[in-house]
Amino acid sequence: MQIELTINDKVVKWEVANDEFLADTLRSHGFLSVKKACDTSCCGLCTVWMDGKSMLSCSVLSLRAHSKKITTIEGLPKEAEEFAQILSAEGAEQCGFCSPGFIMSVLAMKNELVNPTEEEIIHYLTGNLCRCTGYMGQLRAIKIYLGVA
Amino acid sequence: MFTILDLVQPDNLAEAYQILSDKRNNTILGGCAFLKMGKKRINTGIDLTKLKLNYIQEKDGFIEIGAMTSLRDIETHPLLTEHYNGVLPQSVRDIIGVQFRNGVTVGASVYSRYGFSDLITALLSLDTEVELFKAGRMPLADFLARPKEKDLLVRLWIKKTKRQASYLSFRNSASDYAVLNVAVSMLNNRWTIAVGARPSKASIAISASALLSLEGATSETIEEAAKRTSEELSFGTNTRGTATYRKALCRALVKRGIMEVLACKSN
Ligand SMILES: Cc1cc2nc3c(=O)[nH]c(=O)nc-3n(C[C@H](O)[C@H](O)[C@H](O)COP(=O)(O)OP(=O)(O)OC[C@H]3O[C@@H](n4cnc5c(N)ncnc54)[C@H](O)[C@@H]3O)c2cc1C
Ligand code: FES
Ligand code: FES
Protein backbone atom coordinates (compact mmCIF):
# COMPACT_ATOMS: atom_id res chain seq x y z
CA MET A 1 0.00 0.00 0.00
CA GLN A 2 1.04 3.62 -0.39
CA ILE A 3 1.61 5.81 2.66
CA GLU A 4 2.12 9.54 2.78
CA LEU A 5 4.11 10.89 5.70
CA THR A 6 6.36 13.71 6.73
CA ILE A 7 9.89 12.58 7.37
CA ASN A 8 12.14 15.19 8.98
CA ASP A 9 9.88 17.97 7.64
CA LYS A 10 9.72 16.59 4.10
CA VAL A 11 6.50 15.10 2.72
CA VAL A 12 7.03 11.76 0.97
CA LYS A 13 4.92 9.02 -0.58
CA TRP A 14 6.28 5.53 -0.07
CA GLU A 15 5.12 2.10 -1.14
CA VAL A 16 5.19 -0.32 1.83
CA ALA A 17 4.24 -3.95 2.34
CA ASN A 18 1.39 -4.80 4.76
CA ASP A 19 3.79 -6.50 7.14
CA GLU A 20 6.74 -4.14 6.79
CA PHE A 21 8.14 -2.45 9.87
CA LEU A 22 9.10 1.20 10.02
CA ALA A 23 12.78 0.60 10.82
CA ASP A 24 13.17 -1.36 7.57
CA THR A 25 11.28 1.23 5.54
CA LEU A 26 13.36 4.08 6.95
CA ARG A 27 16.64 2.27 6.38
CA SER A 28 15.65 1.33 2.83
CA HIS A 29 15.12 5.06 2.15
CA GLY A 30 18.56 5.96 3.45
CA PHE A 31 17.83 6.88 7.07
CA LEU A 32 20.71 4.75 8.27
CA SER A 33 20.91 6.34 11.73
CA VAL A 34 18.00 4.05 12.56
CA LYS A 35 19.66 0.91 13.92
CA LYS A 36 18.19 -2.50 14.52
CA ALA A 37 19.68 -4.83 17.12
CA CYS A 38 17.28 -7.01 19.11
CA ASP A 39 14.32 -6.61 16.72
CA THR A 40 12.11 -7.74 19.63
CA SER A 41 11.22 -4.40 21.31
CA CYS A 42 13.84 -4.73 24.03
CA CYS A 43 16.87 -2.51 23.27
CA GLY A 44 15.65 0.91 22.08
CA LEU A 45 18.26 1.23 19.32
CA CYS A 46 15.58 1.77 16.69
CA THR A 47 13.92 4.70 18.51
CA VAL A 48 12.40 7.40 16.28
CA TRP A 49 9.62 9.90 16.94
CA MET A 50 6.10 9.60 15.61
CA ASP A 51 4.23 12.88 16.01
CA GLY A 52 6.81 13.82 18.64
CA LYS A 53 6.47 10.63 20.69
CA SER A 54 9.35 8.17 20.86
CA MET A 55 8.52 4.79 19.32
CA LEU A 56 10.34 1.56 18.56
CA SER A 57 10.48 1.59 14.77
CA CYS A 58 11.36 -2.13 14.69
CA SER A 59 7.93 -2.91 16.13
CA VAL A 60 5.68 -0.31 14.47
CA LEU A 61 4.11 -1.28 11.17
CA SER A 62 5.09 1.17 8.43
CA LEU A 63 1.44 1.67 7.50
CA ARG A 64 0.92 3.27 10.92
CA ALA A 65 3.19 6.11 9.78
CA HIS A 66 0.56 7.22 7.25
CA SER A 67 -0.24 10.94 7.75
CA LYS A 68 2.20 11.10 10.65
CA LYS A 69 5.32 13.16 11.27
CA ILE A 70 8.34 10.91 11.64
CA THR A 71 11.57 12.30 13.04
CA THR A 72 14.93 10.53 12.97
CA ILE A 73 18.19 11.90 14.29
CA GLU A 74 18.98 13.20 10.78
CA GLY A 75 16.12 15.67 11.35
CA LEU A 76 17.57 17.07 14.58
CA PRO A 77 21.22 17.78 13.67
CA LYS A 78 21.69 20.77 15.99
CA GLU A 79 20.25 19.21 19.12
CA ALA A 80 21.92 15.86 18.40
CA GLU A 81 25.32 17.42 17.94
CA GLU A 82 25.05 19.50 21.09
CA PHE A 83 24.22 16.46 23.20
CA ALA A 84 26.66 14.14 21.40
CA GLN A 85 29.51 16.50 22.25
CA ILE A 86 28.65 16.33 25.93
CA LEU A 87 28.37 12.56 25.65
CA SER A 88 31.84 12.21 24.20
CA ALA A 89 33.33 14.74 26.64
CA GLU A 90 31.98 12.59 29.47
CA GLY A 91 33.49 9.45 27.93
CA ALA A 92 30.00 8.02 27.59
CA GLU A 93 30.39 6.56 24.13
CA GLN A 94 32.31 3.52 23.03
CA CYS A 95 31.14 1.69 19.91
CA GLY A 96 28.36 4.28 19.51
CA PHE A 97 25.89 1.83 17.99
CA CYS A 98 23.26 2.65 20.62
CA SER A 99 23.74 6.42 20.34
CA PRO A 100 21.15 7.47 17.70
CA GLY A 101 18.28 5.67 19.51
CA PHE A 102 19.55 6.82 22.88
CA ILE A 103 19.84 10.46 21.79
CA MET A 104 16.31 10.37 20.33
CA SER A 105 15.05 9.19 23.74
CA VAL A 106 17.02 11.84 25.62
CA LEU A 107 15.65 14.58 23.36
CA ALA A 108 12.11 13.23 23.80
CA MET A 109 12.64 13.22 27.55
CA LYS A 110 13.82 16.84 27.44
CA ASN A 111 10.56 17.80 25.73
CA GLU A 112 8.43 15.82 28.15
CA LEU A 113 9.92 16.16 31.65
CA VAL A 114 10.71 19.38 33.45
CA ASN A 115 13.78 19.25 35.71
CA PRO A 116 13.68 15.47 36.09
CA THR A 117 15.25 13.83 39.12
CA GLU A 118 17.96 11.19 38.68
CA GLU A 119 15.36 8.49 39.38
CA GLU A 120 13.04 9.94 36.71
CA ILE A 121 15.87 10.12 34.16
CA ILE A 122 16.87 6.52 34.77
CA HIS A 123 13.28 5.36 34.60
CA TYR A 124 12.59 7.26 31.37
CA LEU A 125 15.61 5.68 29.69
CA THR A 126 15.14 2.08 30.89
CA GLY A 127 14.19 1.10 27.35
CA ASN A 128 17.60 2.11 25.89
CA LEU A 129 20.26 -0.53 26.39
CA CYS A 130 24.00 -0.01 25.93
CA ARG A 131 26.34 -2.99 25.89
CA CYS A 132 29.53 -0.95 26.33
CA THR A 133 29.38 1.95 28.73
CA GLY A 134 27.76 0.99 32.04
CA TYR A 135 25.48 4.07 31.90
CA MET A 136 27.26 6.27 34.46
CA GLY A 137 28.90 8.49 31.82
CA GLN A 138 25.59 8.78 30.01
CA LEU A 139 23.86 9.84 33.22
CA ARG A 140 26.50 12.51 33.85
CA ALA A 141 26.10 13.77 30.28
CA ILE A 142 22.30 13.95 30.55
CA LYS A 143 22.46 15.90 33.79
CA ILE A 144 24.86 18.41 32.25
CA TYR A 145 22.73 18.67 29.10
CA LEU A 146 19.52 19.26 31.08
CA GLY A 147 21.24 21.57 33.54
CA VAL A 148 20.21 19.41 36.49
CA ALA A 149 23.70 18.25 37.46
CA MET B 1 8.14 -12.95 11.95
CA PHE B 2 4.43 -12.84 11.13
CA THR B 3 3.11 -12.13 7.66
CA ILE B 4 0.01 -10.19 6.59
CA LEU B 5 -1.53 -11.06 3.25
CA ASP B 6 -4.27 -8.42 3.11
CA LEU B 7 -4.90 -5.38 5.20
CA VAL B 8 -8.17 -3.62 6.01
CA GLN B 9 -9.04 -0.47 7.92
CA PRO B 10 -12.74 -0.87 8.72
CA ASP B 11 -14.98 2.17 9.17
CA ASN B 12 -17.03 0.67 11.97
CA LEU B 13 -16.94 -2.05 14.63
CA ALA B 14 -19.51 -4.28 12.93
CA GLU B 15 -17.39 -4.41 9.80
CA ALA B 16 -14.25 -5.12 11.83
CA TYR B 17 -15.96 -7.95 13.69
CA GLN B 18 -17.40 -9.39 10.45
CA ILE B 19 -13.94 -9.54 8.88
CA LEU B 20 -12.49 -11.01 12.06
CA SER B 21 -15.06 -13.83 11.99
CA ASP B 22 -14.77 -14.47 8.24
CA LYS B 23 -11.57 -16.54 8.44
CA ARG B 24 -9.65 -18.23 11.23
CA ASN B 25 -6.44 -16.38 10.40
CA ASN B 26 -7.97 -12.91 10.20
CA THR B 27 -6.43 -10.97 13.06
CA ILE B 28 -6.82 -7.64 14.81
CA LEU B 29 -3.64 -5.58 14.88
CA GLY B 30 -2.94 -3.79 18.15
CA GLY B 31 0.50 -2.25 18.54
CA CYS B 32 1.89 -5.48 16.96
CA ALA B 33 4.75 -5.84 19.46
CA PHE B 34 3.53 -9.25 20.59
CA LEU B 35 2.32 -10.44 17.21
CA LYS B 36 5.78 -9.66 15.91
CA MET B 37 7.35 -12.17 18.27
CA GLY B 38 5.39 -15.00 16.63
CA LYS B 39 5.20 -16.51 13.18
CA LYS B 40 1.50 -16.18 12.52
CA ARG B 41 0.44 -16.17 8.87
CA ILE B 42 -2.29 -13.57 9.00
CA ASN B 43 -4.77 -13.69 6.18
CA THR B 44 -6.37 -10.28 6.72
CA GLY B 45 -4.86 -7.88 9.25
CA ILE B 46 -7.53 -5.66 10.76
CA ASP B 47 -6.20 -2.20 11.59
CA LEU B 48 -8.58 -0.33 13.92
CA THR B 49 -7.02 3.11 13.30
CA LYS B 50 -10.17 4.61 11.75
CA LEU B 51 -12.35 3.62 14.72
CA LYS B 52 -10.88 6.25 17.04
CA LEU B 53 -10.51 3.88 19.97
CA ASN B 54 -7.56 5.73 21.41
CA TYR B 55 -8.95 7.69 24.37
CA ILE B 56 -9.41 7.86 28.12
CA GLN B 57 -12.47 9.77 29.28
CA GLU B 58 -15.07 10.05 32.01
CA LYS B 59 -18.60 8.89 31.19
CA ASP B 60 -21.66 8.05 33.32
CA GLY B 61 -19.68 7.57 36.53
CA PHE B 62 -17.04 5.43 34.82
CA ILE B 63 -13.58 5.95 33.41
CA GLU B 64 -13.76 4.66 29.86
CA ILE B 65 -10.60 3.46 28.11
CA GLY B 66 -10.63 2.69 24.37
CA ALA B 67 -8.96 -0.49 23.11
CA MET B 68 -6.29 1.31 21.08
CA THR B 69 -5.12 3.46 23.99
CA SER B 70 -1.40 3.02 24.58
CA LEU B 71 0.08 1.84 27.87
CA ARG B 72 1.97 5.13 28.02
CA ASP B 73 -1.36 6.98 28.03
CA ILE B 74 -2.42 4.76 30.95
CA GLU B 75 0.76 5.85 32.71
CA THR B 76 0.37 9.57 32.19
CA HIS B 77 -3.34 10.42 31.87
CA PRO B 78 -4.49 12.67 34.75
CA LEU B 79 -7.74 10.71 35.26
CA LEU B 80 -5.65 7.66 36.05
CA THR B 81 -2.83 9.32 37.97
CA GLU B 82 -5.46 11.00 40.16
CA HIS B 83 -7.65 7.97 40.85
CA TYR B 84 -7.09 4.78 42.83
CA ASN B 85 -3.72 6.14 44.06
CA GLY B 86 -2.41 5.86 40.52
CA VAL B 87 -2.51 2.06 40.65
CA LEU B 88 -2.88 1.70 36.87
CA PRO B 89 0.07 4.00 35.96
CA GLN B 90 2.09 2.19 38.63
CA SER B 91 1.29 -1.19 37.11
CA VAL B 92 2.57 -0.38 33.62
CA ARG B 93 5.58 1.80 34.42
CA ASP B 94 8.10 -1.07 34.41
CA ILE B 95 7.01 -2.61 31.12
CA ILE B 96 10.17 -2.28 28.96
CA GLY B 97 10.55 1.46 28.25
CA VAL B 98 8.66 4.61 27.29
CA GLN B 99 9.03 3.98 23.53
CA PHE B 100 7.56 0.52 23.95
CA ARG B 101 4.64 1.72 26.05
CA ASN B 102 3.91 4.43 23.47
CA GLY B 103 3.26 1.65 20.95
CA VAL B 104 1.45 -1.18 22.72
CA THR B 105 -2.28 -1.16 23.37
CA VAL B 106 -4.70 -1.75 26.22
CA GLY B 107 -7.12 -3.83 24.11
CA ALA B 108 -4.46 -6.36 23.12
CA SER B 109 -3.01 -6.47 26.63
CA VAL B 110 -6.34 -7.33 28.25
CA TYR B 111 -7.85 -9.45 25.46
CA SER B 112 -4.77 -11.69 25.35
CA ARG B 113 -5.01 -12.54 29.09
CA TYR B 114 -1.25 -12.96 29.38
CA GLY B 115 -0.35 -14.65 32.67
CA PHE B 116 2.52 -12.21 33.18
CA SER B 117 0.32 -9.15 32.63
CA ASP B 118 0.88 -6.26 35.01
CA LEU B 119 -2.12 -4.29 33.80
CA ILE B 120 -4.68 -7.09 34.22
CA THR B 121 -3.76 -7.61 37.89
CA ALA B 122 -4.21 -3.91 38.65
CA LEU B 123 -7.48 -3.72 36.69
CA LEU B 124 -8.78 -6.77 38.54
CA SER B 125 -8.40 -5.00 41.88
CA LEU B 126 -10.70 -2.20 40.62
CA ASP B 127 -14.33 -2.36 39.51
CA THR B 128 -13.43 -3.04 35.89
CA GLU B 129 -15.72 -4.20 33.11
CA VAL B 130 -14.67 -5.32 29.66
CA GLU B 131 -16.79 -4.50 26.62
CA LEU B 132 -16.50 -6.98 23.77
CA PHE B 133 -18.21 -6.42 20.44
CA LYS B 134 -20.06 -9.75 20.37
CA ALA B 135 -20.17 -10.96 23.96
CA GLY B 136 -21.04 -7.51 25.36
CA ARG B 137 -20.11 -5.95 28.67
CA MET B 138 -19.05 -8.03 31.66
CA PRO B 139 -16.86 -7.83 34.78
CA LEU B 140 -13.17 -8.39 34.02
CA ALA B 141 -13.12 -11.42 36.37
CA ASP B 142 -15.90 -13.06 34.30
CA PHE B 143 -14.05 -12.31 31.07
CA LEU B 144 -10.88 -13.94 32.44
CA ALA B 145 -12.85 -17.03 33.47
CA ARG B 146 -14.55 -17.49 30.08
CA PRO B 147 -13.20 -19.87 27.46
CA LYS B 148 -11.24 -18.03 24.76
CA GLU B 149 -13.47 -16.98 21.88
CA LYS B 150 -12.72 -14.76 18.91
CA ASP B 151 -14.08 -11.32 19.66
CA LEU B 152 -13.07 -7.70 19.54
CA LEU B 153 -12.34 -5.86 22.76
CA VAL B 154 -13.82 -2.40 22.31
CA ARG B 155 -13.21 -0.64 25.61
CA LEU B 156 -12.83 -0.94 29.36
CA TRP B 157 -15.12 0.64 31.94
CA ILE B 158 -13.80 1.33 35.42
CA LYS B 159 -16.26 2.53 38.04
CA LYS B 160 -15.15 5.95 39.23
CA THR B 161 -14.96 5.63 43.00
CA LYS B 162 -12.71 6.64 45.84
CA ARG B 163 -11.23 3.15 45.94
CA GLN B 164 -7.73 3.13 47.41
CA ALA B 165 -5.30 0.78 45.77
CA SER B 166 -1.72 -0.35 45.65
CA TYR B 167 0.31 -2.27 43.05
CA LEU B 168 3.52 -4.19 43.69
CA SER B 169 5.56 -6.43 41.42
CA PHE B 170 8.75 -8.36 41.90
CA ARG B 171 11.16 -8.53 38.96
CA ASN B 172 14.51 -10.28 38.69
CA SER B 173 15.76 -7.31 36.67
CA ALA B 174 14.23 -3.98 35.63
CA SER B 175 11.89 -4.34 32.65
CA ASP B 176 11.82 -8.16 32.75
CA TYR B 177 8.46 -9.91 33.16
CA ALA B 178 7.32 -9.93 36.79
CA VAL B 179 8.02 -13.04 38.86
CA LEU B 180 4.83 -12.14 40.70
CA ASN B 181 2.56 -9.13 40.87
CA VAL B 182 -0.05 -8.08 43.40
CA ALA B 183 -2.74 -5.41 43.52
CA VAL B 184 -4.73 -4.66 46.65
CA SER B 185 -7.65 -2.25 46.93
CA MET B 186 -10.25 -1.12 49.41
CA LEU B 187 -13.52 0.78 49.17
CA ASN B 188 -15.77 1.31 52.22
CA ASN B 189 -13.83 -1.40 54.07
CA ARG B 190 -14.41 -3.95 51.31
CA TRP B 191 -11.11 -5.37 50.18
CA THR B 192 -9.93 -6.95 46.94
CA ILE B 193 -6.63 -8.79 46.62
CA ALA B 194 -5.51 -9.78 43.09
CA VAL B 195 -2.37 -11.75 42.26
CA GLY B 196 -0.87 -12.26 38.79
CA ALA B 197 2.19 -13.75 37.09
CA ARG B 198 1.78 -16.86 39.27
CA PRO B 199 2.82 -17.44 36.39
CA SER B 200 -0.74 -18.18 35.23
CA LYS B 201 -3.23 -15.36 34.73
CA ALA B 202 -4.31 -13.08 37.54
CA SER B 203 -6.96 -14.15 40.05
CA ILE B 204 -8.72 -12.61 43.00
CA ALA B 205 -8.00 -14.21 46.39
CA ILE B 206 -11.66 -14.46 47.36
CA SER B 207 -11.32 -15.94 50.82
CA ALA B 208 -8.48 -13.62 51.91
CA SER B 209 -10.34 -10.56 50.55
CA ALA B 210 -13.49 -11.61 52.46
CA LEU B 211 -11.52 -12.12 55.67
CA LEU B 212 -10.23 -8.53 55.63
CA SER B 213 -13.63 -7.15 54.64
CA LEU B 214 -15.44 -8.98 57.45
CA GLU B 215 -12.92 -8.65 60.25
CA GLY B 216 -11.21 -5.37 59.36
CA ALA B 217 -7.48 -4.82 58.94
CA THR B 218 -5.58 -5.45 62.17
CA SER B 219 -2.01 -6.70 62.41
CA GLU B 220 -3.37 -10.25 62.95
CA THR B 221 -5.89 -10.20 60.08
CA ILE B 222 -3.33 -8.67 57.71
CA GLU B 223 -0.91 -11.53 58.47
CA GLU B 224 -3.72 -14.03 58.11
CA ALA B 225 -4.99 -12.53 54.82
CA ALA B 226 -1.48 -12.61 53.34
CA LYS B 227 -1.05 -16.24 54.41
CA ARG B 228 -4.50 -17.21 53.17
CA THR B 229 -3.85 -15.60 49.76
CA SER B 230 -0.70 -17.67 49.35
CA GLU B 231 -2.67 -20.81 50.27
CA GLU B 232 -5.86 -20.32 48.27
CA LEU B 233 -4.16 -19.45 44.97
CA SER B 234 -2.00 -21.84 42.98
CA PHE B 235 1.56 -21.09 41.89
CA GLY B 236 3.74 -22.58 39.19
CA THR B 237 7.40 -22.80 38.27
CA ASN B 238 9.10 -21.25 35.23
CA THR B 239 12.54 -19.84 34.42
CA ARG B 240 11.84 -16.76 36.55
CA GLY B 241 10.98 -18.50 39.79
CA THR B 242 9.72 -21.67 41.44
CA ALA B 243 6.23 -22.22 42.80
CA THR B 244 7.61 -22.22 46.35
CA TYR B 245 9.41 -18.94 45.78
CA ARG B 246 6.29 -17.35 44.30
CA LYS B 247 4.19 -18.52 47.24
CA ALA B 248 6.62 -16.90 49.68
CA LEU B 249 6.76 -13.71 47.59
CA CYS B 250 2.98 -13.60 47.46
CA ARG B 251 2.70 -13.57 51.24
CA ALA B 252 5.23 -10.74 51.53
CA LEU B 253 3.79 -8.60 48.71
CA VAL B 254 0.17 -8.99 49.81
CA LYS B 255 1.04 -7.91 53.34
CA ARG B 256 2.94 -4.91 51.98
CA GLY B 257 0.08 -4.06 49.61
CA ILE B 258 -2.50 -4.03 52.41
CA MET B 259 -0.24 -1.81 54.54
CA GLU B 260 0.20 0.58 51.61
CA VAL B 261 -3.56 0.86 51.12
CA LEU B 262 -4.01 1.57 54.83
CA ALA B 263 -1.38 4.29 54.59
CA CYS B 264 -3.10 6.03 51.65
CA LYS B 265 -3.57 9.73 52.30
CA SER B 266 -7.34 9.87 52.24
CA ASN B 267 -7.75 7.14 54.89
C1 LIG C 1 9.40 -8.04 24.71
C2 LIG C 1 8.10 -7.84 25.42
C3 LIG C 1 8.08 -7.70 26.81
C4 LIG C 1 6.86 -7.51 27.48
N1 LIG C 1 6.87 -7.35 28.84
C5 LIG C 1 5.69 -7.18 29.50
C6 LIG C 1 5.65 -7.01 30.93
O1 LIG C 1 6.66 -7.04 31.62
N2 LIG C 1 4.44 -6.85 31.51
C7 LIG C 1 3.27 -6.82 30.78
O2 LIG C 1 2.21 -6.67 31.37
N3 LIG C 1 3.28 -6.94 29.45
C8 LIG C 1 4.45 -7.14 28.79
N4 LIG C 1 4.45 -7.32 27.44
C9 LIG C 1 3.15 -7.32 26.73
C10 LIG C 1 2.81 -5.92 26.24
O3 LIG C 1 2.61 -5.05 27.32
C11 LIG C 1 1.53 -5.92 25.40
O4 LIG C 1 0.49 -6.42 26.19
C12 LIG C 1 1.62 -6.81 24.21
O5 LIG C 1 2.74 -6.40 23.45
C13 LIG C 1 0.36 -6.74 23.37
O6 LIG C 1 0.14 -5.43 22.95
P1 LIG C 1 0.22 -5.03 21.43
O7 LIG C 1 -0.55 -3.76 21.30
O8 LIG C 1 1.61 -5.10 20.99
O9 LIG C 1 -0.64 -6.24 20.76
P2 LIG C 1 -0.53 -7.03 19.40
O10 LIG C 1 0.79 -7.71 19.28
O11 LIG C 1 -0.94 -6.16 18.28
O12 LIG C 1 -1.70 -8.09 19.61
C14 LIG C 1 -1.63 -9.14 20.55
C15 LIG C 1 -2.89 -10.01 20.38
O13 LIG C 1 -4.04 -9.28 20.77
C16 LIG C 1 -5.01 -9.27 19.70
N5 LIG C 1 -5.71 -7.99 19.76
C17 LIG C 1 -5.18 -6.75 19.61
N6 LIG C 1 -6.10 -5.80 19.84
C18 LIG C 1 -7.26 -6.46 20.10
C19 LIG C 1 -8.60 -6.04 20.40
N7 LIG C 1 -8.93 -4.75 20.51
N8 LIG C 1 -9.53 -6.99 20.60
C20 LIG C 1 -9.22 -8.31 20.51
N9 LIG C 1 -7.98 -8.77 20.23
C21 LIG C 1 -7.01 -7.85 20.05
C22 LIG C 1 -4.18 -9.47 18.45
O14 LIG C 1 -4.97 -9.99 17.40
C23 LIG C 1 -3.14 -10.44 18.94
O15 LIG C 1 -3.62 -11.74 18.95
C24 LIG C 1 5.64 -7.50 26.74
C25 LIG C 1 5.67 -7.64 25.34
C26 LIG C 1 6.86 -7.82 24.68
C27 LIG C 1 6.84 -7.93 23.19
S1 FES D 1 15.80 -3.08 17.53
FE1 FES D 1 13.97 -2.14 18.12
S2 FES D 1 13.97 -2.34 20.26
FE2 FES D 1 15.77 -3.40 19.66
S1 FES E 1 28.34 2.52 23.16
FE1 FES E 1 28.36 0.51 22.40
S2 FES E 1 26.30 -0.14 22.71
FE2 FES E 1 26.36 1.77 23.63
TrEMBL record, chain A:
Keywords: 2Fe-2S, Iron, Iron-sulfur, Metal-binding
Entries under Gene3D superfamilies matching the protein: 3.10.20.30, [2Fe-2S]-binding domain
Entry keyword annotation includes Repeat: no
Domain (2Fe-2S ferredoxin-type) ranges: 1-76
InterPro entries registered for this protein in UniProt: 2Fe-2S-bd (IPR002888), 2Fe-2S-bd_dom_sf (IPR036884), 2Fe-2S_ferredoxin-like_sf (IPR036010), 2Fe-2S_ferredoxin-type (IPR001041), Beta-grasp_dom_sf (IPR012675), Diverse_Oxidoreductases (IPR051452)
Protein name from the UniProt record: 2Fe-2S iron-sulfur cluster-binding protein
Organism this protein belongs to: Desulfosporosinus nitroreducens
